[in-house]
Amino acid sequence: MLKVAIVGATGIVGQQAIVSLTNHPWFQITKLAASARSAGKPYAEALREANGASRWWCPQELPPEIAQLTVEEATAFDPTSVDLIFSTLDAGVAKELEPKWARTTPVISTASAFRYEEDTPILVGGVNMDHTALIKVQQERRGWKGFVVPKSNCTISGLVVSLKPVLTHFGVKQVIVTSLQAMSGAGRSPGLSAMDMTENVIPYIPGEEPKVESEPLKILGTFNGQGITNAPFGITATCTRVPVLDGHLVVVFAQTEKTCTPEEVKEVMLDFGADFCRLGLPSSPPQLIAVTDDPFRPQPRMDRDRGDGMTVTVGRLRKDPILENGLKYVCLAHNTKLGAAKGAVQTAEYLVKYYLKWL
Amino acid sequence: MLKVAIVGATGIVGQQAIVSLTNHPWFQITKLAASARSAGKPYAEALREANGASRWWCPQELPPEIAQLTVEEATAFDPTSVDLIFSTLDAGVAKELEPKWARTTPVISTASAFRYEEDTPILVGGVNMDHTALIKVQQERRGWKGFVVPKSNCTISGLVVSLKPVLTHFGVKQVIVTSLQAMSGAGRSPGLSAMDMTENVIPYIPGEEPKVESEPLKILGTFNGQGITNAPFGITATCTRVPVLDGHLVVVFAQTEKTCTPEEVKEVMLDFGADFCRLGLPSSPPQLIAVTDDPFRPQPRMDRDRGDGMTVTVGRLRKDPILENGLKYVCLAHNTKLGAAKGAVQTAEYLVKYYLKWL
Amino acid sequence: MLKVAIVGATGIVGQQAIVSLTNHPWFQITKLAASARSAGKPYAEALREANGASRWWCPQELPPEIAQLTVEEATAFDPTSVDLIFSTLDAGVAKELEPKWARTTPVISTASAFRYEEDTPILVGGVNMDHTALIKVQQERRGWKGFVVPKSNCTISGLVVSLKPVLTHFGVKQVIVTSLQAMSGAGRSPGLSAMDMTENVIPYIPGEEPKVESEPLKILGTFNGQGITNAPFGITATCTRVPVLDGHLVVVFAQTEKTCTPEEVKEVMLDFGADFCRLGLPSSPPQLIAVTDDPFRPQPRMDRDRGDGMTVTVGRLRKDPILENGLKYVCLAHNTKLGAAKGAVQTAEYLVKYYLKWL
Amino acid sequence: MLKVAIVGATGIVGQQAIVSLTNHPWFQITKLAASARSAGKPYAEALREANGASRWWCPQELPPEIAQLTVEEATAFDPTSVDLIFSTLDAGVAKELEPKWARTTPVISTASAFRYEEDTPILVGGVNMDHTALIKVQQERRGWKGFVVPKSNCTISGLVVSLKPVLTHFGVKQVIVTSLQAMSGAGRSPGLSAMDMTENVIPYIPGEEPKVESEPLKILGTFNGQGITNAPFGITATCTRVPVLDGHLVVVFAQTEKTCTPEEVKEVMLDFGADFCRLGLPSSPPQLIAVTDDPFRPQPRMDRDRGDGMTVTVGRLRKDPILENGLKYVCLAHNTKLGAAKGAVQTAEYLVKYYLKWL
To answer: Hey, is the C-beta of A62 within 8 angstroms of any chain B C-beta?
Structure first.
């Protein structure tokens, strides 16, 4: 078993990482780290508020062996005490601490701090595993024995998975998306106000649209030996928040280079990622994309847990009535599983086996 | 006071028509009609279910003088007993009954039955009052002394109001919309299931997208003496249902003919409809469009009642990063006020004063 | 493997029975039956609506081998074709059909049709297994080789489980309860309207309070050789519906015969049912009652799935400030698992092993 | 017009006070005060967050003349600059500042700081206007020219209004309540988390039950010349939070001294407060209690705005099946109108006219 640490363990993404790693066949959580406020306390106690409430927010029960781990202070954490670090810190702290750890130890991060660095890939399971080669560039340029590999923004997980087979087979000219994003994406400290989110929609998510308009181009780009050449198309987005717990729904209007029918698109989507799934990584689903013919699906609450939260569900595939080579569909991905903690675990699984070759 | 009837009075739109007409300075409800099941009963009793529940669904109290009106059977209703009929029937029944009444009496309808007839205008307050001229064509062609004027689909109310000034000043080339529609649009008998709509989104509304892609082109078209020449651009739509009670939010990506800045668009939107508002119709708001600079607005729950549900709120006006002459914004309209019953009342007010010239 | 049928298979409780029986170690679903409308079609097709929607309402995927089973007509169902029947019919139909099947075959029913028959026990796992003896009375009196054993009303599942150890150790004098019930309890055809249940509470559930005030007295009563002598205390209830998907929360004010402290009550609750759990029935949880010290728990969404929906969570145990020997607490049970389909499966497991002795 | 100040003006209760005072016939807001952070800025600007969002949380538009008032610092506020002060501060700050202002100026407070002082009445419109006499005791004992009169806790508003006529006519022996409280009661900074309140119930509200168990006894008590003698009965409560925006629903099990029928109780409730309503205070409703026969009512969303939020709605009045002289009902009151800001305005109206005799 490889020893792993979760840094940022008291936050909601850290908690979800704990859930994603419970009973994992390769990884064992041996260290938890968080801010000074939590340091020195058993994890369960660090989550306990003055009024008796527990800030353990997952419906899954906190595993007793994790509950009693003593939380260390993130700034003083010794990266050599584990084989692998999952960092679920906020971007600011991540920018400072992750490079220190990466000198000796691989860091898989859900923070955005390193996403836009030229020598850093944003890996999405089954989509761009060839970008793994960029890690070596990062290690050489920075003199690191470890590395930092960040997760993509949670909103685009479903989008890039669904676009990849379209891009491969038909080319993509332009993509117009409206996202209907779940509330869990806004975190828990305190996250969104119930008074704002009850029977309401908020048509703006600060900082989100620029990420949605740029990250997919890097992820869907090509490794050029020293970096990534972005995919050659444009994305425009409006990102909204809807009263849904988990599961980001993205409404897509895409224009392809080549003409294609909805049936052809369905076929390439269903075929997509079969090789990657056959690797049998513990966190991989049986299929990367499910395509539903029920016109009322995908729905966040009904479809987000498909493939235990790692399968993207595409529905309403149809020809656009006015756009040239236009295609309309909606896609759904679980933002805190595929889009965050569990996606990070899957990335770690891939890197441990095929990049680090520790298994 | 003009005597008006509401036919379809027990349904939710009929109820909202009652609310919209309560204390109206020009119109007095003297007749209510509905299906055979309700006929012959006082209205309050017709709404009473076997288990004691009342099917009066509006938070406003049912006015006592309406509560005791005896409901007549719609199929036997005598149109000459009133000056004006508000029809809130389903499309099928409307198609059959509205023409009979129109022989003698003006009919304002929230049904879609006549929307696509060549000799029938779809009037939206302040947007296309010149289409009123088409009513004469309808009356002459059909030999009616009355007429049928239908309301537009509720989803497009906000869209056409917001597009009209853009079309006038800058021209429109193409419009791509995603709607996030409120649950009240699905009616109440029984309407949507709570089990489907709790922390969920349904990405499909049967029959909605074709309407959203075509009706605005007629409403924004030009009267050619015998009919309407559609506006010369294309619309593509994905319509979704979100867990919101009232207020349809529409996410718009528009391309204009002429280059324009968000500031210029804001200005023409704010100016739009000033003449119409100055007519002082009882159901008109002080302004047709409010443009908000708060990036988190419009929100359905916070903005739907602006102008007592008759003002469209536009927000997030910004330049599109990839579309040529591209403009992004969101707009919100109250689907059961501007988009249905109260909009119908406003149309009636306009026609009574400026077409029928009864006041 | 024992062959089982689900009758009422297209309804929501039938669907939950399918989920509860998926991968069951003892039972294999070999027959599905429903109304004439569904008969003759493969199950997945029987669930398909005209507009393409599927009425499969569970987030778990429909198992492919179940999807293709041909649905039989309930009224023509041959009970000898299976070893055991799960009936999830409405009470009216159940009253008529269940006795026919019981002539030859054991019937476990979620309907209320037989609950109040003198020769019929209402079995709740771990609470009153000695009532099993009443089945023989039923079989003899009615000349049945099979039997009918109904599930209790879903609301009282948590209540009777939590009251049993209190009754045993301290006696119960009086119980005053307010229930906050989940929407799934109202079914799905169509169930509650989203317009009624959005940010709202409905303070009445037709027919519920009399059940809550009487069924627990039978379940907590004693087998007297020929029937059940009711437990000797009174219950008064107000039942309300809250906007929660699953999980009935019951607020309890109880008065005991003997004085007891909250700590003593906690202890007897935690100990309760250990023997029953040790039987290791496939659907049994590790503990019947969990008692939480977090004052903000139990919460329906966070605690309903404890013990895979079969553990009752009790919280806020405290002394009442005014009632003599008064005890206050809240308890939560999963209404469609413990309180319905899965509870029925557990009852079947017990009866197959300890009454029928087939295993 | 009397000049009034709102101190705590940027908080949600302060905002609701602004709404309650808009277009008031007697009172004009001339001063706003808040914490140092807001001081010196125009009110609208003080509400503006760094990201452009406005913290004006009411659906009613902020009146322009209020928007431009410069906010003063609460700690430096000059009480002699106004005739009357509405204090919507938190209890801690209120305890310190309200006595300073009361030396010269009447203070109506929504804070709990003074509720339990012996010389301070908790006034509830129509329930205990005779307690007004206690103000003189307060003024004399403390040497104040002004006074502090606090509002009751929001949860009990509906309870005390509904209990008063029962107490008067039949006597009350014991009251057992479960509250289902709206989220707005938890404030807005940030208030409850949307992740906690989505399809969920929280069975605990810190500090609430002791208030619900004690305040009504003072309010329903009798003035004894120097203080209040508490009403001679006991209350026990469990307070829960439900996903409702506004409107606290309270489920009541009451035992009366004298036998009474539900019809008799209905009658005394309907009669209650007629004299008080006839005073015609601007914020008073036409009736204090509405009693509904629809068994599915009152519902928070449908009934909270009755009497513009100042009428209590009682429903489900019925005899208790087990409690001696037992009565069951539910009552609903608007927690931020009757239960907070608007109730405070009504109290001020009463005191200005009948205690201060300024009008």
So the answer is: no
Helix (H) or strand (E) holding B255, with range, is strand B248-256
Q: Can you say whether the dihedral through the CA atoms of C101, C105, C107, C112 is positive or negative?
A: positive
User: Which backbone phi and psi does A182 adopt, to 5 degrees?
Assistant: -75, 160
pLDDT at D18 over 90: yes
Answer yes or no: are the C-beta atoms of B195 and C57 closer than 8 Å. yes
CB distance A71 to A40 below 8 Å: yes
| Structure confidence by residue, pLDDT tens digits, D22-31 | 999 999 999 9
Residues D217-257 have pLDDT tens digits of 999 999 999 999 999 999 999 999 999 999 999 999 999 99
Q: Are B16 and D259 spatial neighbours (Cβ–Cβ below 8 Å)?
A: no
* Chain D residues 215-244 with CB within 8 Å of chain C: 234-236, 238, 240, 242-244
Query: Does A330 contact B238 at a Cβ distance shorter than 8 Å?
Result: yes
> Residue A293: closest CA among chain C residues belongs to which residue?
C52
Query: Choosing among B193, B196, B200, which should be mutated to test the C contact, i.e. which has the most C CBs within 10 A?
Result: B193
Minimum distance, in Å, between the CA of residue C46 and any CA atom of chain D: 30
A189 pLDDT above the threshold of 90: no
**What does the pLDDT look like over D311-350, one tens digit per residue?**
999 999 999 999 999 999 999 999 999 999 999 999 999 9
Pairing of the two strands C2-7 and B326-333? unpaired
Indicate the pairing of strand C84-87 with strand C106-109: parallel
C105: left (phi over 0), alpha (psi -120 to 50) or beta: beta
CATH code assigned to B156-333: 3.30.360.10
pLDDT tens digits, one per residue of D98-110: 999 999 999 999 9
Residue of chain A with shortest Cα separation from C47? A294
Q: What's the mean per-residue pLDDT of chain A?
A: 97
The beta-carbon neighbor of D188 closest among A188, A193, A199 is A193
B52-76 pLDDT, tens per residue? 899 999 989 999 999 999 999 999 9
pLDDT of residue B28: 98
pLDDT per position as a tens digit, B289-308: 999 999 999 999 999 999 99
Q: Which two tokens stand for residue B246?
A: 């009232």
Percent with pLDDT over 90 in chain B: 96
Whether A149 contacts A355, CB under 8 Å? no
**Residue A14 above 90 pLDDT?**
yes
Cα B104 from Cα B84, distance rounded (Å): 10
User: What is the C-alpha separation between A271 and C68, in angstroms, rounded?
Assistant: 24
d(CA C124, CA C346): 9
Tell me which CATH code domain D2-153+341-355 carries.
3.40.50.720
Q: Count other Cβ atoms within 10 Å, centred on residue C63.
A: 16
Q: How far is A208 from chain B (nearest CA, A)?
A: 13
Tell whether A53 is within 8 A of chain C (Cβ).
yes
Q: Cα dihedral angle (B56, B61, B62, B63), rounded to 10 degrees?
A: 180
In chain D, domain spans: 2-153+341-355, 156-333
- Active site residues per annotation of A: 154, 248
C248 in active site:
yes
Mean pLDDT of A294-313: 97
Rg (C-alpha) for chain B, rounded Å, is 20
D169-189 CB burial, b ≥16 within 10 A, e <16: bbbbbbbbbbbbbbbbbbebe
Interface touch A253/B238, C-beta < 8 Å: yes
Mean pLDDT rounded to a whole number for chain B: 97
Residues 6+ apart with CB under 8 A from B160: B124, B127, B152, B215, B216, B219, B220
Q: Hey, are the CB atoms on D295 and B51 less than 8 Å from each other? A: yes
